[in-house]
Amino acid sequence: MNDKVLTDEEKNALVEGVESGEIEVQSSSGPTYASVTPFRIPARAHIVKNGYPRLKLLNQQAAERIARDVEQLLQNDVAVNASELVVNSFSRVCEGLPDLVAAIVFEAAPLQGRGLITLESSMVRLLVDTFFGGDGAASDIYPANSFTAGELSVSNLFASIVLSAIRDSWAPLQEIVAERVTTEVSIELVDIATESDPVICTEFEISLSDRQCLFHVLLPIEMLQPLLPIFDGQKGDRDPVDDARWGKAIQRRVVESRVNLTSNVFLPEMTLGQLVELSPGDVIEIERPQKATVMAKNIQLISGRLGVHRGRNAVETIEWVDPLQAELTEMRT
Q1: What angle (nearest 5°) sits at the alpha carbon of residue 196, between those of residues 43 and 187?
Q2: Cβ contacts of residue 73 below 8 Å, gap of 6+?
Q3: Among 17, 25, 43, 227, which is most buried by a count of CB atoms within 10 Å?
């Protein structure tokens, strides 16, 4: 069987010949010489949904805090869930938002730049109706082309709760002071980033009065630059000077810590039959103990002799049960 199969050397020679033009390539218009044209992949706007796992966890913690505080504000059952986190250009994120939103711009010192909270019009109406004691049904009858001053005030109250929740959930990683700067009625009036700047957009779902609405928190990547490695799950750089200072402080506190000491002075042995026959008034005879072991939290520390000191039972230290003495002495210094 004679299969017409090219060897690897023949394949490589053929490819090199076509690229260099040494091999003639036939076409309908006559012989031509092939060439390789570089193909450039253009930059494309893309959505990232699987990044920043730690930020997703913090968002869910913030959602739980928001639900609790909004319940107290509205005196109604509330559920909040951080449903999605995407990274895209600011213009693409804005394209996915409704035309009419309550846009609350905020700062989060010491982070540089500004972030944004957007509340859909349906959510603003629902918050206002519930805030004034309604059941949410009246939120469907209001016009959807503008916001009143009262509606914006309630929106600002809600935004304050969101900022407080973000501050508390981020506290273990970064202390921030989150404050509202301004409130706009259109996303077009907001200037927190250029159209091509990447932003992290977290979508939150809120359930209130048997209705579901959405609000979003937008954070420019430039604003979060110092925290991105942490949000992505990486360990932050440690300062050896701070570590040494904390180490000495912890050592001092450990030495000053109080522990309860116990001691076994005798361990009598009895058969099970003798034990069950005991009755009130029976005496368990023991020999005069000579040695005792001092323990802390059931951990044996000191071996010593049992005696009397200043009229009280005492244990004279003989030796440490394990090499703990050296470590404690080092910690004291």
Answers
A1: 145
A2: 131, 157, 158, 161
A3: 227
Mean per-residue pLDDT, 255-275 = 76
pLDDT at 329: 52
Determine if residue 107 is left, alpha or beta; phi over 0 gives left, psi from -120 to 50 gives alpha, anything else beta. Answer: beta
Boundaries of domain holding 315: 241-266+288-332
* DSSP state, residue 186: S
CA pair distance 116, 106, nearest whole angstrom: 6
CA pair distance 17, 40, nearest whole angstrom: 23
**Mean pLDDT over each residue of the chain, to the nearest integer:** 79
Distances (CA, A) of 209 to 51, 102, 122, 131, 327: 33, 20, 13, 11, 62
Does the pLDDT at position 42 exceed 50?
no
Same domain for 217 and 111, yes or no, is yes
Residue 32 counted as domain residue:
no
> Which two structure tokens, joined as six digits, stand for 76?
């109604």
* Contact by Cβ (8 Å): 144, 211: no
pLDDT at 21: 58
12 located within any domain: no
Quickly list DSSP for 54-70.
Answer: HHHHHHHHHHHHHHHHH
Same domain, 126 and 174: yes
Residue 41 domain flag: no
Q: Is residue 249 part of a domain?
A: yes
pLDDT digits (tens, 9 = 90+) for 148-172: 888 899 999 999 999 999 999 999 8
My answer on whether 88 and 218 are in the same domain is yes
State the helix-helix crossing angle for 240-256 and 324-332, rounded to 10 degrees: 110
Same domain flag for 213 and 247: no
